[in-house]
Write the structure tokens for this entry.
Amino acid sequence: MKKRCNLCAGELQERVMKIKLHEGYDLLIIKVKANVCEKCGWTLYSEEAADKIVKIKEKIGEYIKNRLPKIKEICDKVHMQRIGEVYETLEIIS
Ligand SMILES: [Zn+2]
């Protein structure tokens, strides 16, 4: 039997969602398996996946805090500063 949406009883489909989290200037993209309602878009993540997302966010926050932005001269009196990076999970969290 197909799983149904709690809100509209539409059919749930298993999908890989990309959750975007901002950590200062940095962006974290976490790929997570979820059940998504075809009709209304309601999204259900497993409890384990939700826990993992919180842990990843905490750990990467510590990692990023320990680095300073790099300022680099690219030509006469023009400097560039790193203001952010993008990280994406390699594994799909489920
Ligand atoms: Zn629905």
Remarks:
- Residues 23 and 61 are 6 Å apart (CA to CA).
- The chain has one domain: 12-88.
- DSSP finds one helix and six strands in the chain.
